[in-house]
Amino acid sequence: MALRAARNTIPTRPGPLARKEAWEGRLYILPWVLGFLIFTIGPMLASVIFSFTKYSVLSGADWLGLANYTRIFGDDRLFRLSLYNTFYFVFLSVPLSLFAAFLVALLLSVQVRGINLYRTLYYLPVITPAVASALTWGMLFSGDYGLVNAVLRTVGLPTFNWLFDPKITKLIFVIMGFWGIGGSVIIFLAGLQNVPRVLYEAASIDGANLWYRFRHITVPMMTPLIFFNLVLGIIGTFQVFTGAYIITAGGPANSTLFYVLYLYNNAFRFFKMGYASALAWVLFVIILIFTITQLRMARLWVFYEAER
Length: 308
What we know:
single chain; 308 residues; mainly alpha; MetI-like fold; two-stranded antiparallel sheet; 1% strand; globular
């Protein structure tokens, strides 16, 4: 018996079929691995080196050490301005978009006639090309012939020069953020449909009203998805670029000069690739800090059913 047990614990070598399947699996994943190494890891490592150099595509790289980073945190006024514009957009757009997505998901979770059509319509903007969306919003907010001012004029309200007033231009991009909430809506909707019905039934039997059930059942059960959308939302909004590049090009008076647009200008307008690489790594560190902070704070408010 002891000998048989010992034989059963000895690991056996995989057979020819298992080895063949393993090699086939490695072969199938090889294109992705090569693409990841060449087009993702490779450029990232190269940008680390370039961030310590004075480099343009038209000439070789000259080693500068920490000069690029010293300039970023020293006398670069546009860096601080672009960072302020980006923080303004992140802290205003993310909470409002999350709230709107959650509200729409609640409405779309109701079983009414034609609900699948409504769900499709809310998701369509997600798959609409970003350039087409930006051009559309630019025309809507045009001061001369835009639909927004036409509606305000029709109802007797004052109109605004949306694209040329530094005080309100950033609000356009906050409003545009509602256009792309379809992805978050789908995630919230999936979570709402997975909340156990028995919890609502038990609460109803105990006399809980609609608000109590929403506050003490729906919201706690949805906190993992709220957290997930919050993390992705902050990462995405820190990289806002397309709308600002197409609609305002950073103006007026640099009021929409967001961080990634400033990075793009340095890299592809002024050909300061070394400085742009340093800016990219500063943005990476900022996003990393925000992400780690959210992960640390998640334990205070995110409810996981398996932990209870």
